[in-house]
Write a structure and sequence with these properties.
About 25% of the residues lie in helices and about 25% in strands. It is an alpha/beta fold.
């Protein structure tokens, strides 16, 4: 397995990517820091996997990847949407949904603690407001196994995908109503989930109202929509917010009815891809070293936060 690396001559230099696939593990020994400060780097990882309708099988995959990422020096590992379970029948996810202090999430909390690693767990089936609904919840766990923050997906995927099938997430899922950012040793994190990516307002809010520096986008994009829009939307969000973007993706066929696009990716604040797996179907992870001084460098050279006019125009508008 060849090392995937990307270089750029733009203001943000590309970081080294380390890729783990089913076939092999490529590792480099590098010093890493538990926090990010000016001039320092922190090693983060982005996972790609194919979840199925088996909680134990999915956990085994997540556990294996976490241990391998820890051995590669990763301090913060990001998993995709519905990492713990993807059912093949309507309503299956609601049946297994639990509270964040239930046994499923506590298992992942123990994994974070045992690995001394922060985990971003996107798209957990959190028990909803009634027996017929769940929340699609992005959970952030610290290296001691404590749930630091959680975000309930705001934008639900109710779409008739051209040439594909009809999806109606709201049938079994209740939307959240709160934008969430959280402090971490890796910068201020903006939490989102999948379909949120098509709504730039939430990312603008995370950047300009909540001072996010790193945007997390765990996803399970369909093959059709992923081929058309995945990378371009992620790069746009990075460029317009001047943030790192870490987007973990589901990949391949989960069952007879559902297939995901894949292409887990990390993008820097200039919009440069700095890490991705070498193919869209392998189960594994890619690694990059992020440096918040690069975020500040881009923002200083192009001070859009000081030049934005929309908020003041909106307040004075009669529309």
């Amino acid at each position: 397995m060849a090392l995937a690396s990307f270089a750029a001559s733009l203001p943000i230099a590309a970081a080294t990517a380390v890729v783990r696939t089913r076939a092999a593990v490529v590792r480099r020994a590098m010093s890493s820091s538990s926090s990010v400060s000016a001039g320092s780097q922190a090693r983060v990882g982005v996972v790609q996997m194919t979840s199925v309708g088996d909680l134990d099988a999915n956990y085994a995959t997540c556990s294996r990847l976490t241990k391998e990422a820890a051995a590669a020096g990763v301090k913060f590992l990001c998993f995709p949407e519905v990492f713990s379970f993807i059912g093949s029948k309507d309503g299956e996810s609601v049946k297994i949904a639990e509270s964040l202090d239930g046994p499923i999430m506590q298992r992942y909390c123990s994994l974070a603690n045992d690995s001394s690693m922060w985990l971003s767990l996107g798209g957990f089936q959190e028990k909803g407001p009634d027996d017929s609904h769940q929340y699609n919840t992005h959970v952030l766990i610290d290296d001691s196994g404590k749930v630091r923050s959680s975000y309930r997906k705001i934008h639900l995927f109710d779409v008739d995908v051209p040439g594909n099938m009809v999806y109606k997430e709201s049938r079994f899922t209740t939307a959240g109503d709160t934008v969430v950012a959280a402090d971490s040793p890796f910068g201020r994190l903006g939490l989102t989930v999948c379909y949120d990516l098509r709504f730039p307002e939430i990312y603008q809010c995370l950047r300009f109202k909540h001072q996010a520096q790193v945007l997390l986008v765990p996803s399970a994009f369909t093959k059709v929509t992923g081929e058309a829009h995945w990378e371009i939307l992620l790069r746009a969000r990075a460029i317009e917010t001047q943030c790192y973007v870490i987007a973990a993706a589901q990949a391949g066929k989960h069952n007879e009815k559902r297939e995901s696009y894949g292409d887990s990716i990390i993008i820097d604040p200039w919009g440069v891809v700095i890490a991705r797996l070498p193919d869209r179907l392998s189960t594994g992870f890619a690694v990059a070293d992020i440096d918040l001084s690069k975020v500040e460098a881009v923002r200083t050279k192009m001070p859009i936060s000081e030049q934005r006019k929309f908020d003041s125009i909106l307040k004075s508008s009669s529309l």
